[in-house]
Structures are given as C-alpha cells and as structure tokens.
Amino acid sequence: MPESPEVQALVEELGAQLTGRTITDVDVIEFRVTKTRALPLSTLVGAQVTGAVRHGKLVDLGFGPTHLVVSLGRHGWARWADGAAAPSGTDDAEPPPPALAAITFDDGRTLEFTDAGNFVSLGAWVVDDPFEVPAVAKLGPDPAAPGFSRADFDAAMLGRRKQVKAVLQEQESLAGVGNAYSDEILHAAKVSPVVHAAALAADERDRLFDETVGTIASAIDARRGIPIDRLKADKVAAMRVHGRAGEPCPRCGDTIRDFTFGSTIAQYCPTCQTDGAVLPLKEA
Known about the structure:
The protein has helices at about 5-20, 135, 150-155, 165-170, 180-190, 200-225, 230-240, 270-275, and strands at about 25-30, 50-55, 60-65, 65-70, 75-80, 100-105, 110-115, 125, 255-260, 265-270. It has a four-stranded antiparallel sheet, with no helix packed on it. A four-stranded antiparallel sheet has the order 2-3-4-8, covered by helices on one side. It starts with a helix and ends in an 11-residue tail after the last helix. It is globular and about 60 Å long. It is α+β, with helices and mostly antiparallel strands. Belongs to the FPG family. Its cofactor is Zn(2+). Pfam families: Fapy_DNA_glyco, H2TH, zf-FPG_IleRS.
C-alpha cells in the first residue's frame, strides 16, 4: 500500500512536471474508479494544472478552484505512459499492472493511474473542496507536517485500548502511515506492535513519538527526487524489518518474524520488541 513518503515524492514530481499543463483527453477504462458521477473525470478536459499536494495517502491535483483527488487504495499507483519499459529478462516476470484511468496533457504526455489488486481500490473524485472527499475529511494530524506536535501524538495514543500498531495505521488518528512504516517505526522504537496504546510507559511513548516523526521524515527525504516508476522498489529495499521475515534483525541479530495483523501480515523482532515472545501467525 502506498504510504506518505512515496505519495509525497509522487505529488512533488507531478507538481513539477504538470503545473501549467492543460488536460487534452481523459480515458477512464474502469468506470468504478469515478466516485463523483455528476462530475466525471472528463469534465477536467481543458483545465490547467495549478499544483499538486498530498493528503495522507491521497493525491490532490489542483486546477484552480477544482481538485482531482485520487485514492491509490491498497495496490494503486501512477506512471507515465512513456516511462520505464515493462519488466523483462525472465518468462515469469510479472506483467505491469493495468491502467484504470489515463490523463493526457498538452505536451503529449499521459499519466496513467494503475491498480494491481484483485478488486478496484483506486478511486477518483472531482470536487471543489478536497474535504468533500470522505477519506480526506476524516484524516487526523500528519506526522510529516511541520506543525505536527507531541500533543497531536498524545491525543492519538493516550487512553486508547487499542493495539499501538493499529493506532499508528488509523488514518483518523495519524495520517499517512500504513503497514510497512508502522512496522519500521515500532521496531526502531523497540515497542511491541500488539501492546495497547494505553499501556505504553512514558519512555515508550517518548521513543515512539520520536521514531514516528523521524522515520517518516527520513523516508520522505530518501524518496524525494526518485522517478515514480522506482519509488515502490526503493521503498521495499529500504525496509529494515517490514518484509524481512527470516532475515536477521539489523539491531540484535535475532530472526525477524511474521505475525498476523488483521487481514494482513506484519513483521517484528521478538528480542527487540516483545521480550522474546512469539506473536501468533495464523494459517491462510
């Protein structure tokens, strides 16, 4: 799932490449992408891009008073139609994900929004105010925002009888963090992913706040300027714990393990995070 560091890098590239460009054509291949049926994406033909910003994990392309807000969902992304070639080298290489919507600009370039999942998680809204989009309206404070404070963090954590990993990923509490970066944050802070937020000791909350802000800020800096077709691969390569089950912990050398978290799989280090306790991994 795209998270705030990669989405931030994406919107910065889109802003740099598209500001001042005019849309000449829109092709919606999958009708379920459009969430504002009264204002389909085709109404943007002739509109000029005035900028691009991020709201949590969502992309917002501005056209003066009008906004195209795109939720990338679980497997969505964006690519230039004239960008990197499809994977090659082996017969079993995965094909590139299908484009569900394509926007062409007056310089001849086409921006495609893709979705690689088994269901359509990509969504697009044409609105006058991005806060008309429910997923934007519900967002909590963003750890990457300059004004993000310890008070914002404590408001999300204090008294919450909910596992701390779930709180980190709860967009109403902290915008932009998902499964991968919550694993990285919790490992860096030496905090168990399944402890309730209300049970965190003061020093654990201190470390968790520092690592939430620091991990996201460092990841944004690391992704900035990387071409959008490489952002996902660079994210995977940079993970210290997430997706590293079976590998040695980079801090203590213990084996990184999988555990079941909701409908997905996450990773942790038993020595660094759970006092050696092994968390359950349910069979699929």
